[in-house]
C-alpha cells in the first residue's frame, strides 16, 4: 500500500541525515521533496501545501526543545501530521437503534455491493448483529443476484423485490420486514451510476428522507485519486453523509484519496476495503495508516 509514497518520503528524510540541527534551509529542502512526493501521490494541492507548512512550523518550533536527531524529529512530526490529516482517531459507525439503518451511497463500480456484504458480515460476527441486506439497485438485475449470492455466502438474509422499480418503496417495505423478522440492522445497497447524475442524487435523497438512516456511508474507489475526492464532495453536499469507505486499497493506489478526503470533505474515513473477498474489510485507523506509510 502506497509503496511509492513511502519510498519517496523515506528518501526526503535522508536529506537531514548527518545534519546537526534543523535549520530553515535544510527543512525547506526536505519539505520541498515531501510536498512533491505528496503531489505525485495525487494528494490535493492545497492539502499538500498546508501539510508541509504545518510540518515546517512544528519542526522549527520543536528543534530547540529536543535532543532528537533532525531526521528522527522530522519523521516523527510527519508521522503525527499524517495521522492528523487522516482524522486523528478512528471514528465508529452509529448502529444504535433497532433496527439501525445504514444507507450506502457511491458510484457504480466503487464497491458498494461488495462492501455492504463485508460490513454485514463484520457486524454480525464481531458485534453480534442480526443484519438484513436490502437490494436497492433496481436497475441492474445482476446487482440483486450479486447481493443474494453474497448474502448466502455470509449467512445474512437479503431483502429484494425483483418486480418493484421503486427503491424508496423497497426500502420502506424492508423496514417492515426487518421488524417482523427480528432484524436489528438494515444495510441498504443503492444504485450507482458511472457518473453523478441528477436522477441518482434525487433517488438516494428520497431514500434518505423515507428511512432516516443512522448512518450514511459513501463508498469510493481509492484508485481514482482526486476524482474520488471530487465525487465525495458532491455526494456530501447532497447527502451530508457520515463517513467514507475507501475500497480497493489492495491495488496499486497512490494514496491521494486517503490523504485528501478528510481535509477536503471534513468527514472521516471509517472503513477500508482491501480485496474482493468478504473478509477484506478493516476499520480505518489514521495512526496505523501513518505507521504503514512511514514503514
Ligand atoms: P458497486 O457497483 O458499487 O456495487 O460495486 P461492486 O461491489 O459490484 O464492485 C465492483 C468490482 O470491484 C467487483 O469486481 C468487486 O469484486 C471489486 N471490489 C470491490 N471492493 C474491492 C476491494 O476492496 N478490492 C478489490 N481489489 N476489488 C474490490
In words, what does this structure look like?
With 295 residues, the protein is of the alpha/beta class. Helix content is 53%, strand content 14%. The protein has 11 helices and 8 strands. It has helices at 3-14, 24-40, 45-63, 70-85, 112-127, 141-154, 167-180, 198-211, 225-239, 256-265, 286-293, and strands at 100-105, 131-136, 157-159, 185-190, 215-221, 243-247, 269-273, 281-283. An 8-stranded mixed β-sheet has the order 3-2-4-1-5-6-7-8, with helices on both faces. The N and C termini lie close together (10 Å). Residues 106, 108-114, 192, 247-248, 250-251, 273-276, 280 line the site of guanosine-5'-diphosphate. Guanosine-5'-diphosphate (GDP) binds next to helix 5.
The span between the termini is 10 Å
Small-molecule binders: guanosine-5'-diphosphate
Structural class: alpha/beta
What Rg do the Cα atoms give?
21 Å
| Poorly predicted runs | none
Roughly what fraction of the amino acids lie in strands? 5-15%
Sheet with most strands: 8 strands, mixed
Order of helices and strands: HHHHEHEHEHEHEHEHEEH
How many DSSP E strands?
8
Continuous helix count: 11
Any chance you could write out the topology, listing elements then pairs?
Elements: H1 3-14, H2 24-40, H3 45-63, H4 70-85, E1 100-105, H5 112-127, E2 131-136, H6 141-154, E3 157-159, H7 167-180, E4 185-190, H8 198-211, E5 215-221, H9 225-239, E6 243-247, H10 256-265, E7 269-273, E8 281-283, H11 286-293
Parallel strand pairs: 1-4, 1-5, 2-3, 2-4, 5-6, 6-7
Antiparallel strand pairs: 7-8
The structure holds guanosine-5'-diphosphate.
